[in-house]
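ZP: hey, is the adenosine-5'-diphosphate complex queued? I don't see it on the tracker
AM: it wasn't, my bad. submitting now with these inputs:
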Amino acid sequence: PLVYEAIGLKKDYDGGQVQALRGVSFQVKAGEFVAITGPSGCGKSTLLQMLGALDRPAAGTLNYRGQSLPDAADPAAYRAHEIGFIFQAFHLLPTYTAVENVQIPMFEGKLSLKERRDRGVELLQQVGLGHRVHHFPGKLSGGERQRVAIARSLANRPSVLLADEPTGNLDSHNAAQVLDLLVKLHEEQKMTLVMVTHDLGIARLATRTILMKDGQVVSDGALPPVTPAQ
Ligand code: ADP
Ligand code: ADP
C-alpha cells in the first residue's frame, strides 16, 4: 500500500522569488526506506516539512494513505500519532532526563505515570541506552542524544519516521551508530523511513533514492554508480 503519493507539489517563498519546489512527484510505499538527497537549497527540507504536515504545498496533490494531507481535519493528530520526526539538532529539553524526554509525546495520551515511565525505559533500551535512563542530555554524547531523540520519536508507535539530516551534527563514529539504528528500525520493525541527507554515502543505505536539484526530482530509484577518477 502507498503511504505517500505526491503529484506536482509546488512551493514558493518570498512572493515567488524563490521556487523551492517546482512540481515534485513521487510515491512512498509502506516499509520503504527512501532517501531524499541533492545539493543545499534544492528543496529537501521544504519537501520533508510537507510530508510532516508542518507546511502545505501551494499547488499539487499530497496524499497520506489515500487521504489529502494538506486538507486533513487534524494535522496535529497526524503529527502526534502517525509520524515520528528526527531533526539534525536533537531538540531535547536540557532540564529533563533522557527518560523524561522520551515521555514528552505520551503526556497527551491515556497512559498512567507508571506505564509512561516503563515505556520510556523500554524505548531507551531498544535504542541501546538502557544505561543512560536518568542522564541529562548535557551528560550524553551527540550520538546518544540523537538516539534519545529517536526513542522519543517512537513513543506513540508511529508508522513513518521522517528524518532531516539526522547525522548532520555527529562525528563519523556516532553517525554510524545512529544510521545503524535507523536501518535496524526499518529492517526489523518494518518502519517506513524517509530521510533527507546531502550525503550520497548515506543516501546509498536507502532502498530507494530521490535525487533533487533546483526544486525538481532529477532521478528516482538507484543512485548512479560512483564514476572512478580518470
Ligand atoms: P534544502 O533542505 O535542500 O537545503 P530547503 O528546502 O531548505 O533546501 O530550501 C529550498 C529553497 O527555499 C532554498 O533556496 C532556501 O533558501 C529557500 N527557503 C527555504 N525555507 C525558506 C523560508 N522559510 N523563507 C524563504 N526561503 C526559504
Ligand atoms: P537544512 O540544514 O535542513 O537544509 P536549512 O538550514 O536550509 O535546513 O533551513 C533551516 C530552517 O530555515 C528551515 O525551517 C527553513 O525553512 C528555513 N530557511 C531556509 N532557508 C531560508 C531562507 N532563505 N529564508 C528564511 N528561512 C529559511
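AM: back. The CA atoms of residues 33 and 193 lie 5 Å apart.
ZP: great, adding it to the tracker
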